[in-house]
Amino acid sequence: MPERSARSLFAARLAEARQLRGLSQRALGDRMGLGKDKGSVRINRYERQVTAIGFESLDALAQALDVPPAYLLADSPGMAEAIRLLASASPQQQALMLEALRLAIQDPEALARLVDGATGPSPT
Which molecular-function annotation in GO is an example for this chain (predicted)? Predict the structure, then answer.
């Protein structure tokens, strides 16, 4: 399978986030302050990979979708979900999650113990 380009990943993540929010292209463009007609065309062009997005528009789009800009640029569904979850956490929770992630990378067995401990013993 060929590698996906950053533009195609962005387009897929945008369409997914928009649909999860229950927004049409027109409604999302309007939320961005572009107006319904111009906004609809712009979002459509982003999703079809006809037009590249600039940083200012990326920020406005992310704000309209209530996701961090990095979510729209994540290169995998797991990374996107991790970004979304991390962004929804308090600063204290983010610090704890970051430390847990470091530990999990350094010692994968520690992650398995943490997950096993969180889910408890399996019923017999």
Answer: DNA binding
